[in-house]
From TrEMBL:
SUPFAM superfamilies: Ankyrin repeat (SSF48403). PROSITE patterns: ANK_REP_REGION, ANK_REPEAT, PROKAR_LIPOPROTEIN. ANK repeats lie at residues 66-98, 99-131, 132-164, 165-197, 198-230, 231-263, 295-327, 328-360, 361-393, 394-426, 427-453. This is Ankyrin repeat-containing protein. It comes from the Bacteria. The keyword Repeat applies. The lineage of its organism: Bacteria, Pseudomonadati, Thermodesulfobacteriota, Desulfomonilia, Desulfomonilales. It comes from Desulfomonile tiedjei (strain ATCC 49306 / DSM 6799 / DCB-1).
Length: 453
């Protein structure tokens, strides 16, 4: 896949332009072999120098180190007279570079209708594909030149041809925001429901690249606003995941279901927890803050786990169930202990969450924070009454987790707060034995110095 040719054209560097000017002004003083000079002359579209260098023995089919031919460079320069000259001298119109591109693909990618027509008249293979299965029509769809696309379709190119990943020309047009081309291709039979890479579609391409007008076009052409892909994701979920507020707003205005679930039970708000503006909008439009996914997790739990303070506070205001548990019995507080946001922990405790609440495996927030080595959160939880010697169902304590993972600062703190250094789990393991097993030498020395056995 190439970059957008318009971007390439308009970002042509001053250095490249000066290089062409320098070449043209120094003429025969140019460095390099005759073929190297010929390639540069073609790149600059210089008829006089091309003629001169061919007369000096230059190979009309010479290639650079990535297989780009003299003819390809001339086509990219946009000088059709240079293209005519080279073909008249025997240039191969169907030669390929190392990625399988032909000069016709280059011309289509550049959106040069005149050169495209001429090359086809000269026998260029209009049905060829590159190494990735990209067609000439796909290259034209990227270019943004509607007239080239129309010409190629009128020549019989398949509007629904797919590359090796399953991508179509319509998807390329949607990605680039080429509205006129997308509209034309659909009118000529392009499949608006085609998918590639398991779930990517024309619509997801438009959403990902923030091409709202293409999204509108697809809806106007009959795409179901609540259609689901193979994973059960809807267009609104895709927009939420991409943090695309404008598209999300449009989809909801067109009737998108804000509470639709995918195969994992996830909803659009669960994908929008990082974007408070979008999340607020979804909830204002009726999204249920307490819907659970297949793991029993709510958007509130997810925001707490990821340490999104403003989002957590907003969801509480909107009625999030503070004491909800996932299918493992974990609360938002336990999940928040995985992260590093002390502000979230403070907010949850201030709102009355039980500092010693346990999951179905009897794990507590303190155990999680100790496991992850979050000393500041460990300190806060202990200060709020967390039991430093609580055990999970396997008999593991907070200090065992900290010792096992080498969090010496947490081990020291818990020791000072009265943690039992010689507590044993159901397998008879202690903080010292698990630290030894993991080669946590500093932790081992500290524990021994403080009476651990």
């Amino acid at each position: 896949m190439r970059m957008n040719c318009n971007w390439v054209y308009w970002t042509l560097t001053t250095a490249a332009i000066l290089a062409c000017l320098l070449f043209l002004t120094t003429v025969m003083a140019a460095k390099g072999s005759v073929n190297e000079q010929l390639l540069r002359a073609a790149e600059c579209g210089s008829l006089d120098q091309i003629n001169t260098l061919l007369a000096k023995g230059g190979d009309v089919n010479a290639k650079d180190n990535i297989g780009i031919t003299v003819l390809m460079k001339a086509a990219r320069s946009g000088n059709i007279e240079a293209v005519r000259l080279l073909i008249g001298k025997g240039a191969d119109v169907n030669a390929r570079d190392k990625i399988g591109d032909t000069v016709l693909m280059d011309a289509a990618w550049m959106g040069n209708l005149e050169i495209v027509k001429f090359l086809i008249d000269q026998g260029a293979d209009v049905n060829g594909t590159d190494n990735d299965g990209e067609t000439v029509l796909m290259e034209a769809a990227i270019s943004g030149n509607l007239e080239v696309v129309k010409f190629l379709v009128d020549k019989g190119l398949d509007v629904n041809a797919k590359n090796k990943k399953g991508k179509t020309a319509l998807m390329d047009a949607a990605e680039r925001g080429n509205l006129g081309i997308a509209n034309f291709l659909i009118d000529r039979g392009a499949d608006i429901h085609a998918e590639y890479d398991s779930h990517e579609t024309v619509l997801t391409e438009a959403i990902e690249w923030r091409n709202l007008e293409v999204v509108k076009l697809l809806m106007d052409k009959g795409l179901d606003v609540n259609a689901k892909d193979k994973d059960g994701n809807t267009p609104l979920m895709e927009a939420a995941w991409r943090k695309n507020f404008e598209v999300a707003k449009f989809l909801i205005d067109r009737g998108a279901d804000v509470n639709a679930k995918n195969k994992n039970g996830r909803t659009a708000p669960m994908s929008a927890y990082e974007d408070l503006r979008l999340l607020k909008f979804l909830i204002d439009k009726g999204a249920d803050v307490n819907i659970k996914d297949e793991d029993g997790e709510t958007v509130f739990m997810e925001a707490a786990r990821m340490g999104r303070f403003e989002v957590v506070r907003f969801l509480i205001e909107k009625g999030a169930d503070l004491n909800a548990k996932d299918k493992y019995g974990q609360t938002a507080l336990i999940k928040a202990a995985w992260g590093t946001s002390l502000k979230v922990m403070e907010l949850l405790i201030d709102r009355g969450l039980d500092v010693n609440a346990k999951s179905q495996y009897d794990q507590t927030a303190l155990m999680e924070a100790a496991d992850w080595g979050h000393l500041e959160i460990v300190n806060f939880l202990v200060d709020k009454g967390a039991d430093v010697n609580a055990k999970d169902k396997g008999g593991k304590t907070a200090i065992m987790g900290a010792a096992s993972n080498g969090h010496l600062d947490v081990v020291k703190f818990l020791t000072e707060k009265g943690a039992d250094l010689n507590a044993k789990d159901k397998d008879g393991k202690t903080a010292l034995s698990v630290a030894s097993a993991k080669n946590r030498s500093e932790t081992v020395r500290y524990l021994k110095a403080h009476g651990a056995k």
